[in-house]
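Can you please make up a whole protein chain along with its backbone structure tokens because I've never seen that pairing?
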Amino acid sequence: MLYSIHLIDSFNKQYDVGSVIPIAPSKMQHIMQLAGDADGEERWFSPDEHDPALLLSREIRSYSGTLFDLQYLGTIVVRVNIDKLVRTSAAEEGELIMTSGTDVIYPTRPNFDPASIQADVSSGSGYFTREIEGHTYFVAYNRSFNTGWTYINATPFNQAFRQIIFIKELVIMVFGMIFAVAILLGIRFSRGLTKPIESLIARMKLAEKGNFAEANVLPQDAAPVAMDELGLLHRTFRLMVERINVLITENYASRLLVKETEFKALQAQINPHFLYNTLESVNWLAKINKQTQISDMVQALAFLLRNSVSLKEPILSLREELEIVKNYIIIQKFRFEDRLEFSMNVPDEDLERRLPKLSLQPLLENAIHYALEPSVEPCRIALYTRREEHAFCVIVEDDGPGMAPDTLDRLRSGSLQTTGNGIGLLNIDERLKLAFGDNYGLYIESRPGLGARIILSLPL
């Protein structure tokens, strides 16, 4: 049903396929302008004296992977054979007329002038009868909200009336035959139907009173359920009663579970709140007794606790993540004193970059656990950033005993057993990939005895 397809790319070069009829430059310019104003929707154009085809136009825009950058690639124009489309899709009865306002889109020469009924088709849809040019027509119409076109089907009233009479007579004949057969079958099977119906009514009354267990059991003197419509009704009723009984039991159990979950959730909310208040009390007591080190350590611990249990912001800025790092280092400084040499070098222009929450603190914890704790000598730990060709990197580096470069792969496969819980590095790597894609994540640059460098790869 297509005449041709035309594609105009972003360099204004045109490609044509099919039975091509050149489109006038002014008309093509108008088509592309309306397609550009449509914000991704299609636009239709009715046939004219130069082209009998119905035109469809739409802009084409790009996307990369799962991200839609919506860069303009071109405009596609499709010429549709409206005559063949109507003859294939429309009903055979009556005549289909398509209008846009007072202009006739299809057919080029209708049997009557649609302007004579234009006032009657002003609403969205409907039907009426009208005498036009000496003939009575049954007119049904509908207006498209997408194109604004009105579709009119005009059927000669006499033709429609003859079909109605035929259908009426056929219905009367069929109904008479069905009625006669129903009387014969009713006389034959009335006694066989009465008893099962009474049994079913009795079971329904039991179900109405809430006695689902007895309602689901057939009486001892009941005949076997027949494989007919009434038997299907019996089986369906039994299945319904069984499901209702199961649903009542499950609903009761689920309500108990919901209550228990709500109680545990409320209790879980109280525990952190209690810890915050307790730490705040310890902080003020330390300040009163002029124990500044204890006060600083408690404040840092309270900050870390709030950020670790808070679920409001899964993605933080680098500035906020560094605040967590600073408070963690404060606590570790009290523990290791001069043995911990920590430095941080992050330019101010990089502080607003985004990364998953608690991505850096576990790396510092690993560095202290594997590089500082086993050694009696001072350990240098540095946190800094650098820009690469395709990524922005945040790096945690230490001068400890180092690790194998394939540590992450071995952790992922389960072949390496760690002294900790073994999920810190994998957890950070998976969260980075979920947040930014598989091209980003956590990488290790290290060799045994030469320190370790953990790299977080983030989008530029």
